[in-house]
Amino acid sequence: MPSASTAASTPAASDPASSAASADSAVVAASAGERLRIASVNVNGVRAAFRKGMGDWLSERDVDILAFQEVRASTEDLEGLLGPEWSILHDAATAKGRAGVALASRSTAAIHRVELGAAEFDSAGRWLEADYEVNGKLITVVSTYVHSGEVGTPKQVEKYTFLDAMLERLPELAAHSDRAVVLGDLNVGHRTFDIKNWRGNVKRAGFLPEERAYFDRIVGAEDAPDYNAGAGLGWVDVGRRWAGEVDGPFTWWSWRGQAFDNDTGWRIDYQLATAALAASVTGYVVDRAAAYDQRWSDHTPVVVDYTI
Fold first, then answer.
1. pLDDT digits (tens, 9 = 90+) for 196-207
2. 128 and 135 Cβ atoms separated by less than 8 Å
3. Contact between 126 and 116 (Cβ < 8 Å)
4. Domain of residue 158, residue span
5. Rounded to the nearest 5°, which phi and psi values hold at 268?
6. Are 238 and 26 in contact (CB under 8 A)?
């Protein structure tokens, strides 16, 4: 059982806040307390993750909606691994064995959309939206996997094209539903708190000033008076709001060397929520494995409880 590196029932004291394709629909039954638990994780290949123990984690976490990134498998594989109690939406990448995003919920899924950006841009396997009805309210959940990028190559151009499309889509999502969350592996550390060795990474993909500027536009620059509380497009970085002004909590560590043991990680897995949804958060946890040999991915799940 993984141990939680961050678990809270109240926001950090330093928190500035007081508080295309097809269409389907979904109804998710929240508990008597109207809790909706949404988890996200880059599984780094779902079949391998289950062989290493992901199924045990999932059976213990009582998740209502689970977002996957880097599925690298078929819908049939997901169905076989998760079982009939889960309703699964899956958008595979154009190139077999790469990327792939999915959403699994505890009830029958319905409205979903998978296209992002211009028609000629291949976003397959990287953006999956779904609408859920929770206690009579519309909740929009997006599982996304942003390109990792590589400085000076077409991979970085693709990353910026994706981020441009994401910036264009976010206001549309907020207009569609005032309770929306974009979650997944966004492959950017926004602030110096988000990377252990940030000074050595300022010229590397994942921490480039140009990449971080996108997040300034989404949640505000860190020196903005209303950073993460209405700045930018008004979205909220739930992890940073709850953790406060501290390093991490990190969500990715290299398999190499002592990165995990020394907690030399990156926080690149997010839950970005609209203000209304962010105000309903009652818990935030990063499920960091208790030991290196208990890891089933190089990322760790980010689990958030919302009260709807």
1. 999 999 999 999
2. no
3. yes
4. 10-307
5. -125, 5
6. no
Give the pair of three-digit tokens for residue 272.
């970005």
Q: Give 112-144 pLDDT, tens digit per residue.
A: 888 898 887 888 899 999 999 998 899 999 999
Residue 194 amino acid letter: D
* φ/ψ (deg, to 5) at 127: -150, 120
Q: How many structural domains comprise the chain?
A: 1
Q: For residue 63, give both structure tokens.
A: 């998740």
Backbone phi, psi, residue 134, to 5°: -120, 110
Neighbouring residues of 96: CB distance < 8 A, sequence distance ≥ 6: none
Question: Is 3 domain-assigned?
Answer: no
Distance CA 51, CA 71 (A): 14
- Quick check: bond before 249 cis, omega within 30? yes
CATH of the domain at 76: 3.60.10.10
User: Is residue 91 within 8 Å of 71, Cβ to Cβ?
Assistant: no
Asked if the structure places residue 2 within a domain, the reply is no
